[in-house]
Amino acid sequence: MTTLTISKMTLFGRDNIRVYGERPSSIAEFIHHSVETYPDKTAVSSEQGDLTYREFERCSKNLAAYLQNELHIRKGDRVASLIGNSLEFPIVCYACAMIGATMVPVNTKLSKEEIAYILNHSGARTILHQEPLKQKITDTPHLESHHEITGLIRKVARANLVNLRETTVEETDPAYILYTSGTTGRPKGAVISHINVIHSVMNFKNIFDSDESLSTVIAVPMFHVTGLVGQLLHQFYNGGTVYSMERYQNEAYIDLVLRNKINFLFNVPTIFIMMSTNRKFLENDFGFVRKVAYGGAPIYRQTYDTMKQAFPNAELHNAYGSTETTSPATLMPSAYDESKVRSCGRPVPVADIKIMNENGEELPAGHTGELYIRGPMVVEGYWDNEEANLKNFTDGYWHSGDLGQIDEEGFVYILDRKKDMINRGGEKIFSIEVEDVLKAHPEINEAAVVGEPDSVFGERVKAFIVSPTLNETSIEAIRSYCLERLAKFKVPESIVFLDELPRNAAGKILKTALKNKGGSSC
């Protein structure tokens, strides 16, 4: 890990925020630095083709000039995108950064009604979209125009619209509005500023010791914070190469990694679990992989051991963060004792993380409470949502909604979502603890545990299991297995078998959907 100079500043009205002393002033500045340093190196590769850094900047400049001169987009205007993983997404990303526009990447899997809400709430002036998604854009009276992105990029390339007026972009200016997938009510638009992104990519580079030799496959959506910041912008900051996959497909992903000797993998644990079931993965040598990062869900020891064996020369880094922290709030260091495997690492150097009880009091090491997070990577707030800002931020600390602990050595452990902790007759049960036991069963591929309403105890433990061999006739055997490893009150009282667990586009298990799912076995 490189030692960087850290100073303090007032940011978004928050005093004494630790920041890196020497840093770029904007996203466009650090991308342009990579263009100047590695002009002929491949920046982005996809099934559509490849772009060198020089070509990537030229395409982005042409689009930026069109947005500026033809659509009259100005600094601070919102430009929405309905674009999946592709060559076009990073072009839109860089073009908006050049002219100080705020990009609003919209989840392509959302319904027409959900998309309309985001477009209207954000006040987007225009939307750039892929052709098959055009039919999803409805009920947006304030939208001035919409443009099919592939055709538009070709059009501006032919016109060679390079008359780009210089825009002064401040580091506190908004770069993105990312709408979080709220489980209740409307989604909230987290306003990610240039300074948030800059500190996040510097955190990754600093702790991962990443450089221009790294290459990665983005199989998670670029419109989510991990794909956007943890991979795309992180690699552009390094001068690395990004391979874009439209959607994750197990064998295609493995083939891409093998063919191009991809040396940096960053995925949700689910993808590594899926990879480990593929014969091609098991039969090939992945010794060229140097770094493996994972986050978005707890890592099971079995999955960790599989990765350790499959990637013998790689550093394994757990990461914890969210949209509101612009990706990483904690990162696992390059070297650590294996007793720390379940940890998501230490706070990044500029982060301030504390554990709080329900009375708003800070707890000492080893005690369980909610994680409050502060730092230059924490967003200023939510777009046009003062109620959510007051509820979720206190003295510059963002309330994560996650329950965890910090040990004496500063390692952070995530135990559960605050809303997912089960209260059975006053006994507090962390779902992850029960899931760990179930996942260690040799015939269980995946497990998710939720609280089920109970008239006597308030809640009881309900487990959803994915298994190729077990079924309802195995329930008592599963309970006996759990009883040997857990206190009786933690043993699932209801077990349901599913073909797969419901997930969002980022690969996270949708526990709200499971709680609403009927069917039980007792």
UniProtKB/TrEMBL annotation:
Origin superkingdom: Bacteria
Keywords noted in UniProt: Ligase
Pfam families the record matches: AMP-binding, AMP-binding_C
AMP-binding enzyme C-terminal domain residues: 433-508
SUPFAM superfamilies for this protein: Acetyl-CoA synthetase-like
Record's keyword annotation contains Ligase: yes
Domain AMP-dependent synthetase/ligase: 32-383
Record PROSITE patterns: AMP_BINDING
An MF annotation (GO) of this entry: medium-chain fatty acid-CoA ligase activity
Listed InterPro entries: AMP-bd_C (IPR025110), AMP-bd_C_sf (IPR045851), AMP-binding (IPR020459), AMP-binding_CS (IPR020845), AMP-dep_synth/lig_dom (IPR000873), ANL_N_sf (IPR042099)
UniProt similarity note: Belongs to the ATP-dependent AMP-binding enzyme family.
Protein name: Long-chain fatty acid--CoA ligase
Originating organism: Bhargavaea cecembensis
